[in-house]
Automatic annotation (TrEMBL):
Designated name of the protein: protein-serine/threonine phosphatase
Cofactor(s) in the UniProt record: Mn(2+); Mg(2+)
UniProt organism field: Taxus chinensis
Keyword check for Metal-binding: yes
CDD domains assigned: PP2Cc (cd00143)
Limits of the PPM-type phosphatase domain: 158-415
Entry EC no(s): 3.1.3.16
Family assignment from sequence similarity: Belongs to the PP2C family.
Length: 420
């Protein structure tokens, strides 16, 4: 309760020797209003201020006014007579008198009004404060910083890979490399997967697609193209059952006994260096392709061009992918494939997501990577792996320096050891 008192006299003294003033036992703070009489005004806040001791905040005791104030539950009532203040509840005055007797001399300059216990506003317990658990160490913040600028590298026998996260919160690219399949050094699987709408589809495809191919081959399937096609469709069907609205573009290569099958669904790309000449082994599934636009329209979908970008149903810029269950009526997981023999002029194969190809042409990619790779036969195997890694990192660096905001994943496979 906040009160403001104004007197016309030049000086105001506290009458410490006068009897303690009395206050009513019942009142409704919300119903109180401001009344002015003579030269004295009292403002009473509509919100009670409850002190820690359980009493209402006191008022400084001033010189008695010729006008008495009667506080009751119905508001402020002005009395023009000079009779003492009356109380609606006699019991309350007894409580006040008893409390006043307990006050020491230093407190007698303060009028303290007590309210009947049954009428006093109650303090309510605040809700429990839930404090999230945080670490006081620096490590979590360092890890967060690493996530914001995430780079991943990997290498193995005859391949290396480098990844750099773009401006998204999560890296949506994934990759897979498996060599010496079933103990056969001439059999290998390489793949790059570019997710959209999250990384779930990319992770799923990276984990399952190569395994489905191996399973097909293990069942005696000698047709490599058929095994790859079946694996793509099986991966798409298995992921669609999860009812997750995520998708992934894929580019893969299966190598076996000097033969290679390159497949893609989406805009990830495979480029071969044949004696230093760039040769694209895949064709991007984007809606700039008239045949892809026509295929979607024949299925009852529509495509439109906005700001120079063609999109299916106004959403996706690719026409084929793994997943994308909400677009499955029009998008296809059917891969396009190319089969060729690995000859002595086949130097290396670049598999990359569109984060690279949107900024670096096929010819530039081969020209940048080749100096790191062509002299590898004159070095040790370890130096060869380092050369492949240096080539991958250089391509990622060039794409980023040219303004790529997308995730960038580059994998280079050395084909010399797989040639027939």
């Amino acid at each position: 309760m906040k009160m403001k008192m104004a007197l016309t006299t030049a000086a105001v003294q506290v009458a410490s020797s006068s009897p303690l003033g009395r206050a009513p036992s019942r009142f409704s703070p919300s119903s109180m209003k401001t009344r002015s009489f003579q030269d004295l005004s009292i403002e009473i806040s509509s919100q009670p201020l409850v002190s820690p001791s359980g009493r209402f905040s006191g008022l400084s005791h001033r010189r008695p006014s010729p006008t008495a104030i009667n506080l009751n539950c119905h508001g402020l009532a002005q009395r023009n007579d000079k009779s003492p203040a009356t109380y609606d509840n006699p019991k309350s005055s007894i409580l006040i008198q008893e409390e006043n007797q307990r006050l020491n001399d230093s407190e007698r300059g303060v009028i303290t009004a007590f309210v009947d216990e049954s009428k006093r506003p109650r303090r309510q317990r605040p809700p429990n404060l839930v404090i999230p658990q945080t670490s006081t160490s620096v490590a979590p913040f360092v890890k967060l910083e690493e996530e914001l600028h995430k780079e991943m590298y990997g290498q193995g026998r005859n391949y290396s890979v480098a990844c750099k996260k773009g401006r998204r919160e999560v890296m949506e690219d994934a990759f897979r490399a498996t060599t010496d399949i079933s103990g056969n050094s001439t059999t290998a699987f390489f793949g790059v997967f570019d997710g959209h709408g999250g990384r779930m589809a990319a992770d799923f495809a990276a984990e399952r697609l190569g395994q489905y191919i191996v399973d097909e081959l293990g069942q005696g399937e000698g047709d490599l193209e058929k095994a790859v096609r079946t694996a793509y469709l099986t991966t798409d069907e298995a992921f669609s059952k999860k009812k997750i609205s995520s998708g992934a573009c894929c580019v893969t290569t299966l190598i076996r006994d000097g033969r290679m099958v390159v497949a893609n669904a989406g805009d990830c790309r495979a480029v071969l260096s044949r004696n230093g000449i760039a040769e694209a082994l895949t064709c991007d599934h984007r809606l700039e392709r008239e045949d892809e636009r026509q295929r979607i329209q024949d299925l009852g979908g529509y495509v439109d061009c906005h700001n120079g970008v063609w999109r299916a149903q106004g959403v996706l810029a690719v026409s084929r992918s793994i997943g994308d269950i909400h677009m499955k009526e029009w998008l296809s997981a059917e891969p396009e494939m190319k089969k060729l023999n690995i000859t002595s002029d086949c130097e290396f194969l670049i598999l990359a997501s569109d984060g690279l190809w949107d900024k670096v042409s096929n010819e530039e990619a081969v020209a940048i990577a080749r100096p790191f790779c062509v002299e590898k036969e004159e070095t040790t195997t370890r130096l060869c792996e380092r050369s492949l890694m240096a080539a991958c990192r250089k391509l990622v660096e060039v794409a980023v320096s040219r303004g790529s905001k997308d995730d960038v994943t580059v994998m280079i496979a050395d084909l010399v050891n797989f040639s027939s």
